[in-house]
Design a protein that fits this description.
This protein has about 220 residues and is mainly beta. The chain has helices at about 50-55, 85-90; strands at about 5-15, 20-25, 60, 65-70, 100, 105, 115, 120, 125-130, 135-140, 145-150, 155-160, 170-175, 185, 190, 195-200, 215-220. The chain has a 9-stranded antiparallel β-sheet with strand order 14-13-12-11-10-9-17-16-15, with no helix packed on it. Strands 1, 2, 3 and 4 form a 4-stranded antiparallel β-sheet that branches. The protein has a two-stranded antiparallel ribbon with strand order 5-6. It is elongated and about 75 Å long. About 15% of the residues are buried.
Length: about 220
């Protein structure tokens, strides 16, 4: 929304002639985008006149500014906005109320996150690797990742199962084959919380026709 040297709390008028409401400037997260057009909700630090007088909306220069460390108030991506773009020039008077989730517009909420054993990882894609086989997987319903490999005439399906509890931070992996042996279920050998990687060791012919190997799942 603007470029500023330090963050602060102040006041903003969102509706022409309306009340001044509290507002907070905070640092943009990595990957945030610039607002795509002109607007009246910039910082008043370098403004010599009255922002509110220019269009009835914007920062209230009569409200005392209080320094802030710039920490975001929640999970904010900064890559989209809620409501029509023109409202950022004229204010939101007369507009239909936005759909809300708690005290935030639903459109401003972060995307669905990946939960495993109750832990929120904030990821929606994983990389499944076995030897030279490596493929990305998107989140399936039920918070599981799933990929399929063609191997020696059989289809091998890998699925990371987060509904399976085991000691420590863990999840199960399920392998299913179209060959004579239907499938096998494995518990993880290890989990690296820094790289969000599970490691599994399989055994010969489970599922058919795989030889014993190492399978890894990494959330990315």
């Amino acid at each position: 929304m603007d470029y500023i040297r330090s963050c602060y709390n102040g006041g903003m008028r969102l509706v022409p002639g309306g009340p001044v409401v509290p507002m907070q400037w905070y640092w943009s997260p990595a990957g945030a985008k610039n607002f795509p057009s002109r607007h009246r909700f910039a910082s008043g630090v370098w403004w010599g006149g009255s922002l509110a007088a220019a269009g009835g909306v914007g920062e209230d220069l009569g409200t005392m500014r209080v320094w802030s460390n710039g920490a975001p108030p929640g999970a904010c991506k900064g890559d989209h906005f809620a409501g029509p773009g023109g409202a950022f020039l004229t204010g939101c008077a007369g507009l239909q109320n936005l759909a809300m989730s708690g005290n935030r517009p639903t459109a401003c909420l972060p995307p669905p996150t990946f939960k495993c054993l109750g832990v929120d990882y904030g990821k929606s894609r994983a990389l499944c690797t076995r030897g030279s086989f490596s493929r990305f997987s998107n989140l399936n319903p039920g918070n599981n990742f799933q990929v399929t490999e063609s191997y020696l005439g059989s289809l091998i399906q890998y699925e990371l199962l987060c509904g399976i509890a085991s000691p420590g931070q863990a999840a199960g992996v399920k392998l299913f084959s179209s060959g004579p042996i239907g499938g096998a279920l494995y518990q993880p050998f290890s989990f690296d919380p820094l790289t969000l990687t599970w490691t599994f060791h399989t055994v010969n012919n489970q599922p058919y026709p795989l030889a014993a190997s190492t399978i890894t799942w990494q959330l990315v």
